[in-house]
Amino acid sequence: MRGGVALRVIAACAALAALPLVVRTPSYLDVLIYCGIYSVVTTGLCLLTGYAGQVSLGQAAFYGLGAYASAILTTKAGLPGGLALVLGLVVTAAAAYLIGIPILKLRGHYLAMATLAFGILMYLAFVEFRDLTGGPSGIPGIPALSLFGVRFDTDLKRYYLTTGAALLTLVVARNVIDSRIGRALRALHGSEIAAETLGVDTTRAKLQVFALSAAMASLGGSLYAHHLGLVSPPAFGFVVSVEFLVMAAVGGLASIWGAPFGAAGITILSEGIRRLMPLLLSGASGEHEVIAYGIILVLIMIFMPEGLVAGVGAAIRAGRRAGAASRG
Amino acid sequence: MVDQLLQLSLSGLATGSIYALIALGFVTIYNVTGIINFAQGEFAMLGAMVLIALGPLGLPLPLTIAAAVGLVTLVGAGMERLTIHPARRASTVTLIIITIGVDIALRGLGLLLWGTDPYPIAPFTPGPPVRVGAAVITRQGLWILGTTAALLVVLWLFFMYSYRGKVLRACAINPLSARLSGIRPDRMSLVAFSLSAGLGAIGGIVMAPVTLASYDMGLSLGLRGFVAAIMGGLTNPAGAVVGALLLAVLENIAAGVFRAAYKEAVAFLVLFLILLVRPQGIFGPGGAGRGGL
Amino acid sequence: MGARVFVMLWALILVLGVPLGAGAQEYRIGFVAAITGPASSLGVPERDLAQLVQKEWDAKGGITGPDGKRYPVKIIIHDDESKADTTVRSVKKLIGEDKVHVVIASSQSPTSLAVIPVATEAAVPLISMASSHAIVTPIKERFWIFKTPQSNIHVALHQVKYLKAKGLKKVASLYVNDAFGDDSRRGLAQVLQGTGIEVAYEDKFEQRDTDMTPQLTKAKASGAQALIIHAIGPSSVLITRQAKDLGLTLPIVHNHGIGTKFFIQQSGPAAEGVIFPIGKLLVAEQLPDADPQKKALLDFVRFYETPQRPRSTFAGHAWDALQIAGMALGKVAPGTPTKETYARIRDGIEGVKNFAGTGGIFNMSAEDHVGLDERSMVLVRIEGGDWKHFPPEKW
Asked: Measured between alpha carbons, how far is C378 from B267 in angstroms, rounded to an integer?
């Protein structure tokens, strides 16, 4: 069994590594880079929502903190990108921990509301503190990231960087799920009261996961900043927080694999619509693409309510059963 | 200073009434189905835009308004039947994502049909603004306040005294025993969505003469209505209304007393603090509140 | 099971990642605009114009190449959703897959700034339809980048000239809280330096705000003698209307964001007396016949304007960009572009002289990749529900 899993993991990694060879078009690499970036953020959100049962409508705030930290520290303080990234992680995790202390006492939609308010306040901060953040116009001219002597200045290099980061966050997430904290979380999700009686320190567990998911979002934000080369507030608003939630839910909240598949699925869906719509509907433009996206999103959730990972799996199983039945 | 506060509060009451209508839509749907309807703001947009689209028909205003509200109510019903009903057994999160998809599609449709420019609607009654002490309120502002007040009375009577209304309340208070009493939740879901759509449409229609109608007016309205609904505990309509008025007045006072830049920040900061101090909102039920998302 | 999904996703990626055929004997122009999203009021007229130009070029059989024959032109239009990420991705696709000869992008300043590195690295000429001067400066780093709208600095110069002529010493500056408003108010602040005119009150409002009375009330109380508003879209109308509702009698000076008929239509009587600097397009018929732009402007009006589609300076910027691109393209052979092709097209754009566009008379050069100066704008005053040319004689 172990060998089988390891083999599949190696095959998957090999496939991911070989992907750029098949997909040689530069704009498509760009899509895949964002799949990686969003996967990093969504993994953290999946951990929080799927396993700890805490909803966050403000994840873009942590994403933005990481992005701005990288932007400010590299352009204004001249720090190397790697250091800025790590500092961003630390600051964001600390901020999340501190914010978490009061708000994680809330439940359900009140928690969602508090994260929403926090997300909006952070967005407003990005816009208002213009001396630090460049205001509504943001910060341009962010240099390429250099890590361990490698300068990630081409899309190809950044593809490997972001895909690697996505895999790393998945590994970390899996470890958390399998660890003591993870078990505490799952106990929590089932019943907080029961967990407490079993001696689980639910408050600490929740805080730790909250901080971890924030750190993951921050990592995604830093990678984003170094890829696009500029940060500006619209990329970190409420709508973006909702998009992350959509990615997590579309992938499937029941499994951590939902995160990368949801992130990739939504990103590829948007791009696919933009490429295919003008071919399918003559004269179709931005408006039609937006409508198509909304409709497809609805259809995905109606036909695969547990998310892509579960839904496609079920479809395959049904197909196999039908095949077996017709043969039997 | 007092004069300025009076003016700001009066303008805030008018804006808050619109938020209240949107918030009531959220509360109605949440109470019956447990879903947070992200498309709520678009009902307001559709109400205003359909009214403008019907303008060329040349019908008397009350008739056009009734037609617009009716059409948007149908859209709400259609949304429920086409997108919510098929997924009714899914988790709340899934249903919420569905409403997000509908929200995106409706906004795209608005852009396609009506373009990017804002449209004006003439105020219902022409005339100069009316003086209230040292402050001033436009005639349309009076319409907004009056319509909302009248709607609140009607809704209160509906929920308290009509059979349908009592059934909706039963669904909210105890869905299981409601079902045991022979009430069909999916039928009630249809009623809830239709009612919310109508409320939203009315909100959009009365505010459009003041603020112009455009395809993206629903985003900001929806967010504020949502915040107001939460401030009222998400289950209490009266709380939602008070929350809405409070939010609008807070925003206005923040803009006036501090700088306008801080108006959103102050509103959300206050909201944040309220949640920390009193998690069930201002009027929500005591305790931990209704289950998770 | 997860593996199967993975395989399927990979297959999807392959399907969508394969480029959809590029080279034919044609010219290709990449065109990215903010068709959806907050900046759609800029992008939609630009997109509409591009579609019209495509039809016109199709009818004529295309552009004349260096050999005297006409070759078809394909304008590939993309929506960047007002987001910089999407702009970057669209431009990368246009350059890398569609192999366009020149890129026109985009409607907004931040999104245009985001694609400057992309075009520069690929050594492909890019023409922006946005107004920030930072798009074409510092010129050393903008070898491949051009733009067609006047810069916000030019707008501010006109506004300040008017203020000085009227002897106004204190103004209130209100701006919409996005990159457009921010850039505009910074331009004003820059031009006001050393003039002795003081900004007595400065504040902002959101694009979707419904109530600007707090800002207006405070502007009134500050003792300002004029109200300078930097706004575009619905907020520009609302703030003007609310200013009149509050009974403000100060002269109201806008910037070039209100150059659309909708502003007048929706502001109603509140628009009376509003003054703003704008390209000559809006008052084309009122210009003296000797004006070198007049004929081109009237041609454009005939080309673009219909009762449902009033003239738009944004469409004008797109027109200027496409015409300039077309002129440069005529000097190279069609088909798949090479490094040499791009360089020649770029030189062609930089060499544009005395082109009467809608934004002004363009005289590009190695130091100036806009090619316009303040003469490209005039002051316009809204009177009787229409635009009236407001030359200095009438001040």
From this structure: 42
Cβ-Cβ contacts under 8 Å for B44 (sequence gap 6 or more) = B18, B21, B22, B200, B201, B203, B204, B207, B217, B218, B221, B222
pLDDT at B291 over 70: no
In chain A, whose CA is at the least distance from the CA of B85?
A: A302
Residue-wise pLDDT for C25-72, tens only, equals 899 999 999 998 888 888 999 999 999 999 999 999 999 989 888 999
What does the alpha-carbon distance between residue C36 and residue B102 come to, in Å, rounded to a whole number?
A: 17
Q: Which residue of C has its CA nearest to A224?
A: C85
Q: Does A100 or B165 have the greater pLDDT score?
A: A100
Q: What residues contact residue C89 under an 8 Å CB cut-off, 6+ apart?
A: A27, A30, A31, A271
Q: Which of A187, A182, A221, A193 is nearest to A66 (CA)?
A: A221
Mean pLDDT, chain A, whole residue set? 86
Taking the Cβ of residue C141 and every Cβ of chain A, the question of whether any pair is shorter than 8 Å is answered with: no
CB burial of A99-136 (b: ≥16 within 10 Å; e: otherwise) equals bbeebbbbbbbbbbbbbbbbbbbbbbbbbbeeeebbbb
Contacts of B98 in chain A (CB under 8 A): 297-298, 301-302
> Has residue C1 got a pLDDT over 60?
no
Q: Answer whether A282 touches C (CB < 8 Å).
A: no
Alpha-carbon gap: C253 to the closest alpha carbon of chain A (Å): 23
> Mind listing the pLDDT tens digit for each residue in C277-300?
998 999 999 998 988 889 999 999
What residues of chain C lie within 8 A of the CB of B108, using their CB? 36
Q: Is A36 an interface residue toward C (CB < 8 Å)?
A: no
Query: What is the pLDDT at residue A176?
Result: 86
Nearest by CB: C266 against B120, B138, B219: B120
Q: What is the DSSP letter of B119?
A: B
Distances (CA, A) of C5 to A12, A180, A305, A309, B62: 12, 30, 16, 7, 55
How many residues can be counted in chain B? Answer: 293
pLDDT averaged over chain B?
A: 83
How many residues are given for chain A?
328
> Are the C-beta atoms of C322 and C79 separated by less than 8 Å?
no
Our CA dihedral for A210, A216, A220, A222, rounded to 10 degrees, sits at 100
0.80 exceeded by the pTM? yes
∠ CA B144-B147-B148, nearest 5°, is 85
Q: What is the DSSP letter of C395?
A: -
3-state secondary structure of C109: helix
Question: In chain C, positions 158-177, which contact chain A (CB-CB < 8 Å)?
Answer: 177
The count of CB pairs under 8 A between chains A and C is 130
Mean pLDDT, rounded, for A135-155: 89
Maximum CA extent, chain A: 72
Distance between CA atoms of residues C65 and C71, nearest Å: 7
Cα separation of C163 and C184, whole Å?
Answer: 16
State residue B130 phi and psi, 5-degree precision: -105, 140
| Alpha carbons A203 and C352: distance in angstroms, whole number | 68
